[in-house]
Design brief:
The complex is a heterotrimer of chains A (295), B (334) and C (323). With 295 residues, chain A is mostly helical. In chain A, 76% of the residues lie in helices and 0% in strands. The N terminus of chain A is likely disordered. By secondary structure, chain C is mainly α. The longest helix of chain C is centred in the C-terminal third of the chain and has 39 residues. The chains are: A mainly alpha (295), B alpha/beta (334), C mainly alpha (323). The interface between A and C is large, with 48 and 52 residues.
């Protein structure tokens, strides 16, 4: 008996590693996706280490250098308060990137929960949940975030909440669709026939098999969320100056556009590069996870 | 529509000489067709028999030059239609031939029709393309529908409103709307139910006789071959291994592959305990063996079978076999 | 078919009611005292209290909700701005067309350029046209629209002086004011459209019925446009539907950059001014407009694909094609 359980335990982790290893192997073949992965990893690392590696304190003002363009000393130039833009962009990555990752993580978790209940139980439960999601999604995305931001006010945590709530319906629908496809499969019938509890079926069997499109969606979602967070900060909601969130920095650059175009260029470039890297990674993951989707 | 048919009694209507076609797949060359030669007279039917992947559809598509552009090359060969080498014709001349002089019936009726276009219009389109505006294409299309046994009112319906068998009839209507001289039928009944198969084959046979259309019938069903074909060519790994009239092939199969094919068909009149498939698998088209492609599976194979390309031997008048040991095999089998 | 439209419109009613309840409930949690916002910080407590009673703020929540719902749906009154006292609906009627023009122009550019670009990429797969289009598309998706707006203003208004950087004009000449805004907003949608078109076309080009068309002697460009594109349109239309929501949101931000007096500046300005009835009313209005647009997209499917038309007409609950 003990030997049997030990055998089972020995088999399970081996299987899991093969699937992950297989996906990683496929991904490695895709040079463009790997470039995206490396850029993202580099950005995350820089953001994490930024307090220690930035050349200047991101709040340090030096009015003598006010609005000066890029120089050797100040790679990205200085803003209207004489602060070094390079340091601010690097430090700002902490906010922009983490908003994206946290908000998407939250919306994925809730999306999985709601989607699996709707997808597995079907019927009236599904109907009610879908109508509720319809109501939320009847409000165009950005507008919903604006309204939630209006209610909660600006600030880091409030922005994360606003962004995650807005993304939950999309994730829930996706998981629900996958789940409805999978739940009629025979291995589920088999699990039910051995009296496997419903929660166990959902968590151990169904969700792992439905998760691939969500991984891709989550990756793309981080990119979208970073852009939307920047957008919210740009219009005065979201994260506000003096926090060097990239969207907030762009908002502050508008008045000085004529004299100091470099204020506009670098924060936006940071957003674009991040989003590009994430999209490339997401495309690569999509190809690696399901070769049938490839063109 | 077909122009004046210049009856050249000396030249066959269709003549393929030494056709070689290659696909590129994942960086490797797939040798789909390896030096195929065949001829077809007006009004006659040639059956092209072989397993899936033997290269039959590729030959048909080469005649019409509708092989996919990307990664597909006709390496060498000549395809002469009524004296003109089709492979050297400019594209706009080729377009005049497609659907008009030569047309094709495809294997899967479920996907052969455009889902968002009315069925009648799909037939009318081929008429319009080849009629220089003189013919009323709608009327002709309705006429064709009636000929294939579909009420003309269904002209305005869409493919999803038809069953599989009916869709195949529409495909046949499209193929025959311009009275082609040559019909390429690529396994026209494989995707259909057995009862519908018989109906569709009867329809094709009837129309072929009526319009004196030559037909290249691709199939792996020997029963269909027996029913409609005049001549038979057996293909294996992109090569014709045996060629002759229907009687010659059925009564005196000579190539070990052909023998194996007939042997695999269960006899209705006897009790069979085991089926007799041909041992082994078809060769990898990216890595064909030297010499005879069938030799790895052939129970008569000898050393000389693997040496180099095998020549064609004529065992009887018009009966050809690509086997260097054919005489010995005949002696053995009696 | 009409039955289907009727059914969908009927379905919209509970959704719109739900949105109203949701938005109203959310807005009650907004920080700040409405009376104070309207009367300013100099007002006396007595005045404030009187104002609160006037606004019905002393009533229980459900009563206020019911009052609001009856105002909106029976009297078609979204209330007045707290700051200016101006009735909201006439202002929306004045501002909405500008947002609509901006969104429509953006859509036209995005699809007018995106679809041909995608077709070109698909018909020249793996050649330079394909690679360049897809690289441009990747960049287009990555660039935030507000950043692109700033860059375009920097180039075309500040440096070159060719196009206006803000405001709107009248008549045909007024259209020039929409050029930079539309261009900034369309990059993402254009890029997505090109990618989706390419991928749909590649799928369709491999289909058997395309080979059938070629075997009939149909010229290649007719094969692509008449046979392939029409079948490839369905996923493209789905994408149009999802794009529309993002475009609308994007238009709102773009309006603030270019000072276009549309719904975007109205609502965002109201948020910053704590003029909550505008936020509430504007959101509900836009939600209704959005739902109608989604219905139109679904009808567009039916126009393009007879199988879907048949599904609608037979009353079958077709699968929801929202992504």
């Amino acid at each position: 008996m003990m030997a049997g359980i030990a055998e089972k335990a020995a088999v399970k982790p081996h299987k899991k590693q093969t699937e992950f290893a297989r996906v990683m192997k496929q991904l490695r073949k895709n040079k463009v996706a790997m470039a995206g992965l490396i850029v993202m990893a580099a950005e995350c690392l820089l953001a994490l280490l930024s307090p220690w590696i930035i050349p200047y304190d991101y709040t340090a003002m030096d009015m003598a250098n006010c609005l000066k363009g890029p120089t050797a000393a100040h790679l990205f130039g200085c803003d209207d308060m004489g602060r070094d833009i390079f340091s601010r962009v690097l430090y700002g990555g902490r906010f922009s990137i983490s908003i994206g990752i946290i908000a998407v993580s939250i919306s994925t978790v809730f999306g999985i929960m709601i989607g699996s209940v709707a997808g597995y139980f079907g019927g009236q439960v599904d109907n009610v949940i879908m109508r509720l999601l319809d109501i939320i999604q009847a409000i165009p995305g950005m507008l919903l975030m604006i309204v939630i931001s209006a209610v909660l006010g600006p600030g880091f945590i409030n922005t994360v909440i606003a962004l995650s709530v807005g993304s939950i319906p999309g994730m829930a629908r996706m998981l629900r669709a996958q789940m409805m496809k999978e739940r009629d499969n025979e291995y589920i019938e088999a699990a039910q026939s051995i009296n496997c509890g419903r929660v166990r079926i959902i968590v151990n069997h169904l969700i792992p098999n439905c998760i691939s499109p969500l991984i891709v969606q989550a990756t793309m979602g981080v990119a979208q969320t970073i852009t939307m967070a920047a957008g919210l900060s740009f219009i005065g909601l979201g994260v506000q100056p003096p926090t060097p969130e990239w969207g907030a920095m762009l908002s502050g650059s508008r008045q000085f556009m004529r004299q100091a175009p470099h204020l506009v260029i670098f924060p936006g470039l940071a957003i674009a590069v991040t989003v590009l890297a994430l999209n490339l990674l997401g495309d690569g993951l999509r190809d690696a996870l399901d070769p049938k989707l490839k063109n | 529509m077909s122009e004046n048919k210049t009856e050249n009694k000396n030249m066959p209507f269709l003549s393929i000489k030494d056709l070689k076609v290659e696909y590129m797949s994942d960086g490797q060359a797939v040798h789909a067709v390896n030096g195929v030669s065949l001829t077809l007279e007006r009004g006659k039917t040639l059956g092209l028999v072989g397993e899936t992947g033997a290269g039959k559809t590729t030959i048909a598509k080469s005649i019409l030059r509708i092989l996919p552009d990307i990664g597909c090359h006709i390496r060498q060969g000549e395809i002469c239609l009524d004296g003109d080498n089709v492979l050297t014709l400019p594209e706009h001349d080729m377009r005049k031939i497609r659907g008009n002089k030569v047309s094709m019936i495809f294997q899967d009726p479920m996907t052969a029709l455009n889902p968002v276009q009315r069925v009648g219009e799909q037939i009318a389109e081929v008429v319009q393309l080849h009629s220089d505006g003189k013919t009323d294409s709608e009327a002709r299309a309705k006429e064709m529908l009636e000929i294939v046994g579909i009420p003309a009112e269904r002209y305005y319906e869409y493919p999803h409103q038809f069953s599989g068998g009916m869709k195949q009839r529409v495909v046949i209507a499209i193929a025959l709307a311009c009275n082609p001289d040559l019909l390429l039928a690529d396994e026209p009944t494989t995707a259909l139910d057995v009862t519908i198969q018989a109906q569709v084959m009867d329809l094709i046979g009837e129309l072929q006789k009526k319009y004196n259309t030559a037909m290249l019938l691709i199939t792996h069903d020997m029963g269909v071959v027996a029913q409609v074909c005049d001549d038979v060519a057996v293909i294996y790994a992109g090569n014709i291994v045996e060629y002759g009239t229907k009687e010659q092939i059925f009564d005196h199969p000579s190539h070990p592959y052909t023998v194996g094919l007939f042997g695999a068909i269960p006899d209705m009149n006897e009790d069979e305990i085991w089926l007799h498939p041909i041992d082994g698998l078809p060769p990898d088209p990216t890595d064909l063996p030297q010499g005879c492609a069938f030799s790895p599976r052939c129970k008569y194979a000898g050393e000389e079978c693997q040496k180099g390309p095998i020549a064609i031997y004529e065992t009887a008048d018009g009966h050809h076999c690509r086997c260097c040991r054919v005489d010995e095999i005949r002696k053995q089998e009696g | 078919m009409l039955k289907y439209i009727g059914k969908r419109l009927l379905w919209m009613i509970p959704i719109v009611l739900g949105v109203t309840i949701l938005v109203f409930t959310m807005m009650t949690f907004c920080p700040g005292d409405p009376a104070e916002i309207i009367l300013g910080t100099t007002a006396t407590e007595a005045d404030l209290q009187a104002k609160r009673v006037e606004l019905g703020l002393d009533q229980p929540f459900l009563v206020r909700l019911a009052t609001y719902m009856s105002d909106v749906f029976i009297h078609f009154d979204l209330g007045n701005s707290w700051l200016t006292g101006v009735n909201i609906i006439p202002t929306i009627m004045e501002r909405m067309p500008r947002t609509v023009v901006l969104t429509v122009v953006t859509l036209i550019i995005a699809f007018g350029l995106g679809i041909p670009l995608g077709i070109m990429a698909a018909t020249h797969q793996n050649r330079w046209q394909d690679h360049i289009s897809m690289i441009l598309a990747l960049i287009g998706v990555a660039i935030p629209n507000f950043w692109l707006a700033l860059l375009l203003v920097l180039l075309f208004s500040v440096k070159l002086g060719w196009l206006p950087a803000m405001g709107i004009g009248t008549g045909i000449a007024g259209l020039q004011y929409y050029i930079l805004p539309a261009l900034s907003n369309c990059a993402g949608a254009l890029a997505n459209c090109a990618r989706q078109t390419r991928s749909s076309m590649l799928d369709v080009i491999r289909a058997d019925y395309i080979t059938t068309a070629r075997s009939k002697g149909v010229p290649e460009n007719v094969v692509i446009i008449k046979h392939a594109l029409k079948n490839a349109l369905i996923p493209i239309i789905t994408m149009m539907g999802t794009s529309f929501g993002r475009l609308l949101g994007g238009a709102m931000i773009i309006e603030t950059i270019f000072s276009i007096p549309g719904m975007g500046t109205y609502i965002i300005g109201a948020v910053n001014n704590r003029d909550y009835p505008i936020v509430q009313g504007g959101t509900i209005f836009l939600a209704i407009v959005f739902s109608i647009m989604m219905l139109l997209v679904d009808l567009l499917y039916a126009a393009v694909d007879p199988r879907i038309k048949a599904q609608y007409a037979s009353g079958k609950k077709g699968k929801k094609v929202k992504k």
